[in-house]
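From the pipeline queue, job 12 of 40. The input is one protein chain; the requested action is below.

Action: predict structure.
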Amino acid sequence: MMIRLQKYLAECGVASRRASEKLIEQGLVTVDGRVVTELGTKVEPGKSCVAYHGKPVVLEEKTWLMLNKPPGVICTSDDPQGRETILDMLPASSNRLYTVGRLDVMSEGLLLVTNDGELAHRLMHPRHHVEKKYQVWIDRELTKTEMDRMHKGLNSRGEMLKVLRVEPLKRMIASQPGYTLTLGEGRNRHIRRMMEVLDRNVVRLLRVSVGPLRLEKLRTGEHRHLDPWEVEKLRKAVGLL
């Protein structure tokens, strides 16, 4: 079966489909020894010889991991400052793995790691409205007016940041009130910036779900492979089934 070159590159774990399109346009990809820059180009997996930067590109077995990220760990593959990264916490793999979105260094909780570029790209794209839930503990309670403002949108550095839902948590941390926040899309430091606008200090920020997946009993620092039915649920959530 013939498929588009950018989709093939994404499925091989080279990059997301959109990033792969840029690689093609830059002339960094060859098919059967010929540089290809047309995005409409199709290849046949197993027969076409595709290379990126002169190195053959082959389909990898898809890997999907769920990690409970601890605070203090960064979501990049390496760090010039020598800090611990997500990949330091995972078993060695021959596949190139990357995170589906990020959590800032002091945030914690559910993080997906994969080499499935196409599915990862769709999960991150706001068009697919994949909801993410967070639990946040802050130094002072939110008022009803402030929660209404969070629904309507808060202006942070010229960017409107919103939540879909705000629900008080019964569990407190050191007498600090907590809330469950549901986001339809996540901007850089989304929740922390909203709390800055509301003059609140974040005590703890924990992601507890991404789409149909829940963190549940996975302990801090632990990881596990997703079950096939969980990957199927993710694919269904972004229209791949």
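Job complete. The longest helix spans residues 228-237.
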